[in-house]
Amino acid sequence: MSIVAALSPAERSAFFPGALDAELTALTGPDNTFNRTAPGADWVAFLAVRRPQVVVSHWSTPPLPADAPDYLRYVAHVTGSVRNLLPRAFLERGVRVTNWGDGAAETVAESALLLTLATLRETQHWGRELHERGGWRKGLGDGRTLFDRRVAVHGFGRIARALLALLKPFRVSVLVYSEGVPPDFIRRHGAEPVESLAALFGSRADVLVELEALTPRTTGSVREEHLRALPAGAVFVNCGRGAVVDEAALGRVARDGHLRLGLDVFTAEPLPVDSPLRGPAHVTLTPHVSGPTPDRFPHCGRQVIENLRRWEAGEPLVSELNLHAYDLST
Asked: Closest Cα partner for 116 from 157, 155, 150?
């Protein structure tokens, strides 16, 4: 079986350090790594010569030929979405695909909780007071706790379900809306379904976490009337996809202070320097870093090694994508 790895040296070092690199080399062979940054690198020619059954791919891997080469059987993607790597037709023709799966869900959920707590506790405001103004504490501020709050979640994929587990110690009640998700499935995970997006935003929630997948139907689906339906001073967190939200409307809400915002994702990335989301003390920002942190990268590499061994043995693969999961990825 021919396996090739299409990784940059930096990616290989971060995701396959030490013994993991040796294991990957043992599976691929010493000359079956493609580095697009190398002089004269030609991805199409590399594939044509080696005709691999398996490709280990990463952020830097060039797109695969659109016609799904007949020799290719499996794509082991080290990171997240494969939409820019291969078209849907690959899966339709039976090419199997895996990615980092639930490992990312946990860390994105952790980041959503972090932004929720940081925004409630005004860490952006107090950080500026101490770092930039050399001040201390002028009054008590308007910090709030997460305990016993009403939390709404838009979306109910892996990340949302991981977030529910993290929220349990805070004794929150959780409302959920995600189009197409059966109400009984939501209830089995300890949350209460609502019938529409308008009902979710109009539920008087103290915190709303945006985690819905980006699809043609959800793009721009969170509009200004939804944001303004939340109570004044409520927290809106987005660790899902920026383009689900009308960002111009979000900027207007940021300017007038109707909501406290905790944002990790944006429609345009990097976030423009002149974005109205930059600056306000009630807006907490991170630069799309909610996925696995660098200390978790070797766990992603280990899962790829495990899946390659499973592939060789004819065993079920971990975190395999189906057509539905592909359609929900961005």
From this structure: 150
Q: What is the DSSP letter of 168?
A: G
How far is the first Cα of the chain from the last one, in angstroms, to the nearest whole number? 31
1-55 pLDDT per residue, tens: 699 999 999 999 999 999 999 999 999 988 899 999 899 999 999 999 999 999 9
Averaged pLDDT, 243-257? 96
Strand partners, 173: 150
**Given strand 173-177, what is the order of strands in its sheet?**
192-193, 173-177, 150-154, 207-210, 235-238, 260-263, 283-285
Mean of the pLDDT values across residues 153-162?
96
Superfamily name and number for 103-285: NAD(P)-binding Rossmann-like Domain (3.40.50.720)
Q: Give the 3-state secondary structure of residue 3.
A: strand
For the four alpha carbons of 45, 46, 51 and 56, in that order, the dihedral sign comes to: negative
The pLDDT value given to residue 137: 84
Q: Is the pLDDT of residue 328 over 80?
A: no
CATH domain 3-100+294-328 topology: Rossmann fold (3.40.50)
Which residues in the chain are classed under CATH 3.40.50.720? 3-100+294-328, 103-285
